[in-house]
Amino acid sequence: MKDRESDSMDPETPVDKKRIAFLASGRGSNFQAVIDAVAAAEIPAVCVGLITDNPGAYAIERAKGAGIPVTVVDYARFPSKAAYEEALLSAMRGCRADLFVLAGYMRILGAGIVREFSGRMMNIHPALLPAFSGLHAQRQAIEYGVKVAGCTVHLVDEGMDTGPIVVQRCVPVLPDDDETALADRILAEEHEALPLAVKLFCEDRLEVAGRRVRVR
Ligand code: GRF
Questions:
Q1: Residues 6 or more apart in contact with residue 91 via CB below 8 angstroms
Q2: 63 Cβ partners below 8 Å, 6+ apart?
Q3: Distance from the CA of 171 to the center of ligand 1, in angstroms?
Q4: Global pTM?
Q5: Does the beta carbon of 126 lie inside 6 Å of ligand 1?
Q6: What is the pLDDT of residue 212?
Q7: Is 84 helix (H, G, I), strand (E, B) or coil?
Q8: Closest ligand 1 atom, CA of 123?
Q9: pLDDT digits (tens, 9 = 90+) for 87-124
Q10: 132 closest CA partner among 161, 174, 101
């Protein structure tokens, strides 16, 4: 709470707005969807930073385009995962964010980071969890033969794609779909689901009780 009080004195952060920061490793289209919703005043927030583990991430261009500060914590430059995580943690603390949005962040966060930001980190996953967690979720869905797929925005806990679910959206899987066709159909829903979940958080409308997230 102390941080938030001091933030309220920060002229860059109006008291009625949350500070949101992002972790992304690649293309950043979900990051862009949230940037756009904030710019359109659909989300009461200020985007305070992008942290990426990948110096080649296109998300960096998107951040620059929106005037969002970028911190590159290049995984390849660290001697160990522990050293990387320490630098990442320090970059995250530096954001003084109310919420961290994992928008295509392709690494598993260590337990220390998850604990420190518990309840304040959201991830988007391109499947209807708990089905098809982990990598290549859309391929897993096609190979399994499901008729309905989708995306999930969830709070981050110490498991892989296991945290309490905030928003889900579904799409049909069509007979001739390949992984790309299905991924594109899901992605269009992701671009709605993630801004919605971030908006609900920023409006203080999420109530978490164990695994269940109620929207006020
Ligand atoms: C999305 O499909 C997201 O669900 C997954 O990684 C992909 C990132 O896409 N976690 P983008 O970088 O947001 O375009």
A1: 51, 71, 73
A2: 22, 28, 31, 50, 69, 70
A3: 16
A4: 0.94
A5: yes
A6: 98
A7: helix
A8: 10
A9: 999 999 999 999 999 999 999 999 999 999 999 999 99
A10: 161
